[in-house]
Amino acid sequence: IEYHQRAYELRKQEGDISEQAWNLGLIGWNYKELKEFGKSTEYHQKAYELRKQEGDISEQAWNLGQIGWNYKELKEYGNAIEYHQKAYELRKQEEDISRQAWNLGLIGWNYKELKEFGKSTEYHQKAYELRKQEGDISVQAWNLEQIGWNYKELKEYGNAIEFYQRSYELKKQEGDISGQAWNLGLIGWNYKELKEFGKSTEYHQKAYELRKQEGDISEQAWNLGQIGVNHLLNSPDHAWELFEDEKYSDIPKELIFKEFGDSVVYIEKWEGKAPAFKMANEILSALKTKDWKLNRNKALSNFFAGLLNMELSFDLLRDICAEATGMFDNEGDVIIEAVQHCISYIENGKDENYLLKLNPDMANAVKGIVFEAQL
User: Fold this and answer.
1) Which residues contact 194 (CB under 8 A, 6 or more apart)?
2) CA-based, 20 to 30 A from 80: which of 86, 272, 291, 370?
3) What angle do CA 130, 134, 135 make, to 5 degrees?
4) How many secondary structure helices (H) and strands (E) does the chain include?
5) CB count, 10 Å around CB of 199?
6) DSSP character for 293?
7) pLDDT in tens, 322-331
8) What is the tens place of the pLDDT at every residue in 154-191?
9) Is-contact 70 37, C-beta < 8 A?
């Protein structure tokens, strides 16, 4: 930034608009890398004004696209859409298919963040058609994945499966193991929502095998956890086999418990609070009584983090906490108390002043669970 700024001052002296804009744009780019998105936007806006003077459409579009990116990072999704739309209109003038598709895809992404899933799908579909023209398999797959995600959010699980399947086929063509596993896992998740538990398990097992190839322990645990969820929902006794089968011995079993919360959320959604409470109690009872080689308190913390992450209703979560208090040791009770504080902390808009009222150890416990729950 320092050297581009010095170069810019010299370019101003000689009156070279194009080079001034070039330096301003790169100052903006570097501020973006420093995550100073407001500063980045300021310099891209200056560069854009100079590019307008010289009539360079391509560079104007680049600056607008970078501003759109900054607004995305600042979670100002409406502004992000506005600037990507402006950039897209300029890209249309120069007939740059790849950049048009890039802007359309990001418009779709930002609409998804605004929970306008229909709009998001519309723009990803447009981007996908352009990517097909240029033959970019990787980004076609990304657009299809995003459409699949939108259908998942709209609870159109059959459509979600269709688009994840199409994305998976493209990922196979390019040999992207991680991308294949991601799509297979989400196909499995959507089959679970359709209550096709056998199908769901089949796809999660395939995803697990691919994750083993790439050595991603966290994703292996996610797929195994989802297999466990299918068993809990359909054949509960088989769920505990994951903790006893030697072929899964290299996976930390504490991680699997985070996914078990999904079964409670699923039952609350489809059957109501009382059956969901019963499922949570069965999971906690198994954790307390089964002879498993794991850190029970870590598994307990992960289970509650999963419930928070999957947005179990707070009144039910409080009931589960009340039931679980006293089931484990003192450390377990501290974890359960921290979960109750997590609920209040979230209800208070994650106001840091709430945490300041807690003793430091409890505040740190709350922060740890919130982090684990990815909230």
Assistant:
1) 157, 158
2) 370
3) 110
4) 19, 0
5) 17
6) S
7) 999 999 888 9
8) 999 999 999 999 999 999 999 999 999 999 999 999 99
9) yes
